Amino acid sequence: MRLYLQNIERIALLPEEEEVLFSRLVQKREALLEKQRKIAYEKPSIKILLELQKIQLKEANHLCHLPTKQEWGKRSKYFTKNLQKRPHCISKRSCKRTKC
Q: Has residue 79 been placed in a domain?
């Protein structure tokens, strides 16, 4: 414990202005994430996009590069061929639009 306290003295703390700025940025981020969750709840296609984005970022961290569509499809519950479709096509199984 003593060693930790001695080492922490060497680290400069944030100035008050930066601390306030960072706390406001965190609050804005939390508000945006809440809006994102509400939209995803209301629109299934947005929920699918967010799930796919989360999987893509997780795989990118694991692989040290963005995953290919095959790698991405393997990790998601959507087949690789469905990743090339638009989200509304994935969520509704049979799309009525002509250009998908």
A: yes
What whole-number distance in Å separates Cα of residue 48 and Cα of residue 78?
A: 9
> Is 25 a member of any domain?
yes
Round to whole Å and give the CA distance between 42 and 40.
5
Place of tokens 């290919």: 68
Angle (CA) 15-20-23 rounded to 5° is 125
What distance in Å separates the CA atoms of residue 99 and residue 84, rounded to the nearest whole number?
A: 12
Q: Judge whether residue 47 has pLDDT over 50.
A: yes
Is 15 domain-assigned? no
Binned at pLDDT 50, 70 and 90, residue 81 comes out as low
